[in-house]
Amino acid sequence: MLYMIQQAGGAGEHNVLLPALPELIWSAIVILIFFFVILKFMYPKYKEITEKRATTIKDGLEKAEQAKQEIADANTQSEQALRQAHEEAARIRSEAQDSAKRIVAEAKEQAVEEADRISSNAQRQVEANRQAAEISLKTEVGMLAAELAENIVGEQLTDRELSARVIERFLDQLEASSQKESVSK
To answer: CA dihedral in degrees (176, 177, 182, 184; nearest 10)?
Structure first.
């Protein structure tokens, strides 16, 4: 068709826009050889390189996905371990508080028991001292009463039983009179 266009324009004239037919054929043959060489030798290498890259990228993406999953699993495990540690710490704190309360209660109980024991011992000691003082006082008062009776009677009371009865009666009278005074107050 190009050839016809050239002939229509004139036999000796050459169209500047269109190359000559032999040039077109040779150019087409060179281009076809070039594409054949590229398809035969270059394209397989190119395809192999792009497939390797695609495989490398795919492997990298899979490894990245796997790493993300491992990180997510590790985060989950660390969160679970942290939660368990918090729960364990709360349990230990609770046990420590309960133990402290129990120890304080036991210490208070022991302190109360010790205070009661000391108070009881002190009351017994006071009672014993009071009784000892009472006996000592009765004895002294009895002796004074006997001396007084001897001085009044003018005789020495030699009979111990008689003198003990006189002293007892005198002390009982004194005690009765002091009780009447304390009741009337």
So the answer is: 110
Q: How is the chain split into domains, by residue range?
A: 21-170
Q: How far is CA 20 from CA 3, 8, 26, 30, 76, in A?
A: 8, 14, 10, 15, 76
> What confidence score (pLDDT) does residue 151 get?
66
Query: What is the distance between the alpha carbons of residues 139 and 157, in angstroms, rounded to a whole number?
Result: 16
Residues 75-85 have pLDDT tens digits of: 999 999 999 99
Which residue in the block uniquely carries the two structure tokens 């004194």?
A: 174
The answer to whether 143 touches 171, Cβ cutoff 8 Å, is no
| pLDDT at residue number 153 | 65
- Residue 29 belongs to what H/E stretch? helix 21-37
